[in-house]
Amino acid sequence: MADCLFIILLLLTIAPVKEKFHSHFFDTSGKKINFLQTKLAMQPTNLQDHYAQLLSWKKQGLTIDEISLRFQQTGVPENLIQEALQKWKQLLEKKRNTAFVFCGIGIALLSLGCFVTLLFFNSDTGFDFALYGLTIIGVVCVFKGMYDLMS
Fold first, then answer.
1. N or C: which end of the chain has fewer CB within 10 A?
2. Under 8 Å CB-to-CB from 64, ≥6 apart: which residues?
């Protein structure tokens, strides 16, 4: 109970202090402007909006040249176009690399399962996990990697 009361008192004392440290600027007419508003006014366009637009155009099947042409027609600065395209290419490369890793892990598990099954086939040691478990896990990894490569 005392801990809850202490936390409530702490929150009540911090809330007014937080308001005191808000930085404000004044424009030429003497009107008070928040720092966040001035920062947003300095950036006429948002990279995230252009990146979302780029992804929607890629889903429609447009090429990179058509996308950059559409961005130029809407008046987007060239540097934002290049940043959005660079971000998309990095995402595509990262997805492709993880897909190859999944395929490699799946192939390794399939090979290991086959090798262990052949090794333990004529012995009295059980090979059920190697035959069924590693094979299923390997196939799932390969299919996930192939799905990421194809999409």
1. N
2. 85
